[in-house]
Design a protein that fits this description.
The protein is an alpha/beta fold and 364 residues long. It has one domain: Rossmann fold. Helix content is 39%, strand content 15%. The protein contains twelve helices and 15 strands. A seven-stranded parallel sheet has the order 3-2-1-4-5-7-12, sandwiched between helices. It has a two-stranded antiparallel ribbon with strand order 6-15. α2 crosses α3, α3 crosses α9 and α6 packs parallel to α7. The two termini are 12 Å apart. Pfam families: Epimerase. It comes from Alloscardovia theropitheci. Keywords: Decarboxylase, Lyase, NAD. One of its GO terms (molecular function) is UDP-glucuronate decarboxylase activity. Its cofactor is NAD(+).
């Protein structure tokens, strides 16, 4: 078993200490950034660098020639991901405290100036929302305030706040939503801790732009797919891949009729970095592939197909649906605004599933 484990590790970790699964997607992302030379010799702090989006973003920035400060609370995971990687230094950071990028025991280089901050630090799985709604809200509000305070006081050139498509809330329609639309949120439901605090954080960003002239841009990712999700990720999409890789069947708890827009992680990251390189101050951008709307049932079928496992989907009850409008959480985002910057996604939903499964299967 030990030899098998070492063989699996070698498939993930390159001989130079880098994480090949991460770098593969990072290279793809970097190759599709609009105006990539914008990042030449920039020092970029990535907050939440041990997370799904943050980790690939850090590697993509390194590919683009930026100096990267990979920040997070879990320094062991940061070292596992980035230890020994040229151009990336590790920094322990707690967003509930004032930011400090000066040298300490966890930093290899003392960068005198941070040019750009990317805030990808946020709980993003349903288990956190259910079990720690208070911490979720504080991270998304007071944490962002600490980021913006630092940026204002240290003349940081740009801040990218990674928000969420969940800020749109609930609508009676099910068509792709533009950045100017806003739906209903129940402010007295603890599950609203995530989208409501993301909304508040976006307003805080807009307030710093207005009052202090800070250059802040906002990204609203949709459902993001990729092999870099953590073992603790409680989203159904992550569980589908775990079940399939273990040879278990997939069972949906609903008919899965709702249509979603997905984006592969490399497309997400190239979109985020394009917002920084050619986007506009004070603007928000949806990050998704609007050309590939997919029902959750079809998504489950895609995962089952690539893993050759059975997928069980409940049959809708006869007469269960009617034509009366009902509120439903937004699951489709319109990416027209981001495309107007010259960005375009490279993977549709099925291709994203296939690539995710292929890379995950390499480490089994």
């Amino acid at each position: 078993m030990a030899n098998q484990h070492n063989q699996n590790q070698s498939k993930v970790f390159g001989t130079d200490g880098t994480h090949s699964m991460w770098t593969a997607d990072a290279k793809l992302a970097a190759s599709h950034v609009v105006n990539p030379h914008f990042f030449d010799n920039k020092t970029v702090a990535v907050l939440g660098a041990s997370g799904f989006i943050g980790s690939v973003t850090a590697y993509a920035l390194q590919e683009l020639g930026a100096r990267v400060v990979a920040c997070g609370r879990n320094t062991n995971r940061l070292r596992l991901l980035f230890g020994g990687v040229p151009g990336i230094v590790i920094k322990a950071l707690n967003l509930q405290e004032p930011l400090d990028f000066s040298q300490d025991n966890d930093a290899l280089i003392d960068y005198e100036r941070v040019d750009i901050i990317i805030d990808a630090a946020s709980p993003a799985d349903p288990a956190s929302f259910a079990n720690e709604p208070v911490q979720t809200m504080l991270t998304n509000i007071s944490g962002v305030d600490n980021v913006l305070n630092y940026a204002r006081d240290h003349a940081v050139e740009q801040v990218l706040y990674i928000s969420s498509g969940e800020v749109y809330g609930y609508f009676t329609h099910d068509h792709p939503v533009k950045e100017t639309e806003q739906g209903f949120l129940n402010i007295l439901a603890s599950r609203s801790c995530y989208p409501q605090s993301k909304r508040a954080a976006e307003t805080l960003c807009a307030s710093y732009v207005e009052q202090y002239g800070l250059d802040v841009r906002i990204a609203r990712p949709s459902h993001i797919l990729g092999p870099e999700f953590s073992t603790s990720d409680s989203r159904a999409s992550a569980q589908f891949f775990r079940d399939t890789l273990a040879g278990h069947s997939i069972t949906l708890m609903s008919t899965g009729e709702q249509i979603r827009t997905f984006a592969y992680i490399s497309d997400c990251v190239s979109g985020l970095l394009s917002i920084l390189s050619v986007g506009e101050k004070g603007n928000a951008y949806n990050v998704t592939n609007s050309d590939s709307p997919t029902s959750f049932a079809d998504f489950a079928r895609y995962v089952g197909d690539v893993g050759n496992v059975q997928v069980t989907i409940p049959v809708a009850r006869s007469g269960a649906s009617d034509n009366s409008p009902s509120l439903r959480r937004v699951a489709q985002l319109d990416n027209t605004k981001l495309r107007s910057l010259g960005w375009s996604p490279q993977f549709n939903a099925r291709e994203a599933v296939e690539r995710t499964y292929t890379l995950l299967s390499l480490i089994r």
